[in-house]
Specification:
Mean pLDDT is about 80; it is low at about 20-35 and about 40-60. The strands form two sheets. The protein has a four-stranded mixed sheet with strand order 4-5-6-7, with helices on one face. Helices cover about 45% and strands about 25% of the residues. The protein is elongated and about 85 Å long. It has helices at about 1-35, 45-60, 90-105, 140-145, 150-160; strands spanning about 40, 65-75, 75-85, 110-115, 120-125, 170-175, 180. Helix 3 runs antiparallel to helix 5. The chain has two domains: about 1-35; about 35-180, no CATH class. With about 180 residues, the protein is α+β, with helices and mostly antiparallel strands. It has five helices and seven strands.
Length: about 180
Amino acid sequence: MKKIAIILFLIATTLLVTACENKEQSYNNIIDEKSSLITSEGENSLEQEVSSNVKKKHIKSLNTIEIPISTISNDLSITKYIEVNEDSSIQEKMQIIVDAVSQEAFNNLPMNVKVYSKKNIAKINLIEHESSNKSRVTWKNDYLNQDTKEYTINTIIKNILQEEYKGEWIEKVQLYYDGKLIEID
């Protein structure tokens, strides 16, 4: 009887130690995930504390600003923030925003942006992947069809214009696909 009790005690202790080790590993993953440039709004307090510590490190090394990226998923508005060097040119800031929007809302489909500073215009060209024949997701079929075209245009333009940004920014956005200006029908 004592042998069975000792064996059960050892098994329980081993399971407990293993469970605690896995929890520590997942906590380390949270820290690694928070070191990325994109952070979410509305996270729990422990994650916010970890995120703020990481952000403080970024702020000390660079003079950065947070720019919101908003998307809609399953009828929920999701806002995430990207950190951009405040001293970057408008062209560089636009490319970072376009890349983040593509990642968050459009399955990483490529977009190029060209900023004309004198006119404060950003021209964005939506580009298909080189291997679009093999790719399952395309601009034309998935994001510029009758059902999703308006959402695509609104998402890109809203995130590019950044109406609440106080510094020098662009005032107009033009979207192109296959060399043609995209218009709402």
